[in-house]
Specification:
Elements lengths: L1 H34 L3 E6 L5 E5 L12 H14 L7 E3 L2 H4 L13 E3 H11 L2 H12 L2 H15 L21 H14 L11 E3 L4 E3 L3 H6 L3 E9 L3 E10 L2 E10 L2 H18 L16 E2 L1 E3 L5 E3 L3 E5 L19 E2 L3 H26 L14 H13 L2 E2 L8 H11 L8 E5 L6 E8 L2 H14 L1 H4 L3 E7 L2 E9 L1 H13 L5 E4 L2
Parallel strand pairs: 10-20, 14-15
Antiparallel strand pairs: 1-2, 1-9, 3-4, 5-6, 7-8, 8-9, 11-12, 13-16, 17-19, 17-20, 18-19
Helix pairs in contact: 2-5, 4-5, 5-6
Length: 508
């Protein structure tokens, strides 16, 4: 009897064990899915219209989609003159130690920026992305702060960056909507670099590298980008773009279960976008971001702090007492000007001022408009006034008949004198602490010269701004500081209209 019951008990134990395994299996599957939730967005790239979205605002792990922002800032830095594509970048130990995917850079090695950009865009190399961030901002932490400022300027409200490559880190999160917006900005803001994302293979300086998105590029008609991403926490992510005729669609997927299933889903979403998008639609470029990079100036104590504001103080002198002549002495005439000695200097000053005013009026069409002046005295009246003054012991020089500067002097002799104004600049720590950067130059003198030329030509918006040259590892930044945000924005827009590089700098 015992021999018959023993196998029965053994079968029961095996049965319960198998039941426990099957009961736990779905649990494990659910936990895996929870680590990489699904999110998607489809957008008409021409207009920015959202054609489909699902869970698009959830903050998820972006993985290597992060490198889209790293590349966007690299393109921006080249445009602003902060660095060039041929600038050699020294690889740090931190960059060389990044885990795969990587280019295989060695600490201390030098490589041109253009090859780092290719490696980050095509191979999704983590060491290249970190090297780009360190080259532009000195450290990956400082570069992450710039990434977040740029994300905010682009309208990416659900994004926080902690590194340049996208490896999982606490708080490093984005959304399908934000990454779709970033992809659209890459397309419109830097079209000259967009071809990088469609290369199935490229030269990265030390070797040829293959595109991580080459399967979709090869298999989906019209696909030409943009970026893949994968980590265990993120799943398989992809921001893709495709063009057919006049239509261009951007599709984003977060949380794919495999590269194959992700690509299939993206292809499905792109098909949906082409089906829903109108055949003809105007290209409406997204608004250009207002970059707000933190800039500092050296204070009197030698420490670097955020640029402060400029306050104008009116400290006019209420009265100035003239010493009385001694009794019995004859008051000497007050010589207002010496015509013979001052003539050469006055002519030079007049020519210089006339030339600057004429250039400003011709190029910018911004001739300042002043309030109607008091009626000008006729030449005869000026001469009579001069003769009367001479009779009283005061010599007044005769007004010169031609030239803007001389006409100004004539008006001053006939108009009532104004109370003197003394304007003092005081730097503080708040308020008007915005500014603009108008480029990076090879020498301190070159930056100073551009600042002076710009100040003379853009007097309306740069009046009162402080000219500051800041030394950087790759050159000298030419900055105007101590401005209000609105005035800095206006100055940049006017300078950019003249094809001059300009971007805003301001507080964090």
């Amino acid at each position: 009897m015992e021999r018959q019951n023993k196998p029965t008990r053994w079968r029961a134990l095996v049965f319960y064990f198998l039941c426990a395994i099957f009961a736990l299996a779905p649990g494990f599957g659910l936990r895996g899915a929870a680590a990489a939730p699904y999110a998607a967005m489809v957008m008409d790239a021409r207009t920015g219209e959202v054609l489909h979205s699902r869970n698009a605002d959830a903050r998820l792990h972006p993985a290597s989609l992060t490198k889209m922002m790293t590349l966007y800032i690299a393109f921006e830095a080249v445009k602003n003159g902060e660095i060039t594509l041929d600038t050699p970048v020294r690889i740090s130990r931190n960059a060389a130690a990044e885990p795969p995917s990587k280019l295989g850079l060695a600490a201390g090695q030098k490589i041109k920026l253009r090859y780092l950009i290719r490696a980050a865009a095509v191979k999704s190399a983590n060491d290249a992305a970190t090297a780009i961030g360190e080259a532009l901002e000195g450290s990956e932490a400082a570069f992450a702060r710039r990434m977040n400022r740029t994300a905010k300027a682009l309208g990416m409200t659900r994004t926080t960056f902690k590194n340049a490559h996208g490896l999982t880190e606490s708080g490093h999160l984005s959304s399908a909507r934000d990454m779709t917006l970033l992809g659209r900005h890459l397309l419109f803001d830097y079209p000259e670099y967009y071809n990088l994302f469609s290369r199935t293979q490229t030269d990265a300086g030390i070797k040829q590298v293959n595109n991580t998105n080459r399967r979709l590029l090869s298999n989906y008609r019209g696909a030409d980008g943009i970026k893949t991403g994968y980590t265990r926490a993120a799943g398989f992510n992809l921001v893709a773009s495709a063009v057919r005729g006049n239509e261009r669609i951007i599709a984003t997927v977060f949380g794919g279960r495999s590269s194959a299933s992700r690509n299939a889903k993206v292809a499905e979403l792109l098909d949906l976008g082409f089906k829903r998008a109108p055949s003809n639609a105007p290209n409406r470029a997204p608004d250009a971001p207002v970059y707000a990079a933190v800039k500092t100036i050296e204070q009197a104590d030698g420490k670097m702090r955020a640029a402060g504001k400029v306050i104008r103080l009116n400290t006019a002198v209420s009265r100035s007492l003239r010493p009385q002549a001694r009794p019995g002495s004859v008051a000497a005439p007050v010589l207002v000007a010496s015509a013979g000695a001052a003539a050469p200097m006055t002519d030079s000053m007049a020519d210089t001022i006339d030339a600057v005013v004429a250039e400003v009026a011709q190029k910018a069409s911004l001739m300042p408009q002043t309030k109607p002046a008091a009626p000008r005295s006729a030449p005869e009246e000026v001469m009579d006034a001069s003769a009367a003054s001479a009779a009283n012991g005061v010599l007044v020089p005769v007004a010169r008949p031609v030239g803007l500067f001389n006409r100004m002097l004539t008006e001053e002799t006939t108009m009532a004198p104004e109370m003197p104004r003394v304007v003092t600049r005081v730097s503080t720590s708040g308020g008007r602490h915005w500014g603009i950067n108008i480029g990076r130059y090879k020498s301190h003198n070159a930056a100073e010269r551009v600042l002076l030329q710009t100040a003379l030509k853009e007097t309306d918006t740069l009046d009162g701004a402080l000219r500051k040259v800041v030394r950087k590892p790759t050159g000298f930044d030419a900055n105007f500081l101590g401005m209000e945000r609105e005035m800095a924005d206006l100055a940049c827009r006017r300078l950019q209209a003249r094809n001059q590089t300009c971007f805003m700098i301001g507080p964090s």
